[in-house]
Amino acid sequence: MTNFLQSKSARILTVLLLVQAGAFYGFSRSENIPKHTPLSQFSLDGTDWVLRQEVPLDQETLDVLKADDILSRVYQNKVNGQMATLFIAYFSTQRTGKTPHSPKNCLPGSGWVQMHSSLLSIPVQGEPKPISVNDYSVARGDNQDVVLYWYQARDRVIASEYAAKIFTVTDSIRYNRSDTALVRVVVPVNDGDTQAATQTAVSFVKTFFDPLLHFLPA
Questions:
Q1: Please, which residues bridge with residue 145 across strands?
Q2: Domain locations in the chain?
Q3: Bridge partners, residue 79, by sequence
Q4: Average pLDDT over residues 193-206
């Protein structure tokens, strides 16, 4: 029985049962959609990171994402000159079929090849424990990037796509809401130094994590 509960089939069955429960108990009600501050107002003024570019998304990409609010920017560290791209896709509800797309699915579809995948703990201001995020290195030709990402739902930082789906259902039942956000940081690897790129990405996350909380519903 223990081996079954730990199997992939059991996890899939659990998600299906929770989705059915959510549909019965939560999705039949009018959803509570919390207000949020537009991501366009997000700022890192007063930090070591300077906004260098707003990255517009084409209409085809926007149609695929179906997010209710998006931030896509390139920042540069004033101290070491390193660049970092911050992407946030916020979904006020997932009941209509809108849901974040995992970078582990999107990036390979764009020609990137996975080099490394693990979890990374990052101590951040205001959190009693380090947050756990996905640490995902990819390469395409001579280019290599370090990608850190997670799902932000209410006051939770969730690395696992599987856990994110479960929390969506439980929040729909308990709180009558299904809002969430995908937060992704991409830092290019220079001269093959993946460790330095990871350190830059971690530093960037530590800088923007607390300010970002004011833009996502708790």
A1: 138, 188
A2: 2-213
A3: none
A4: 97
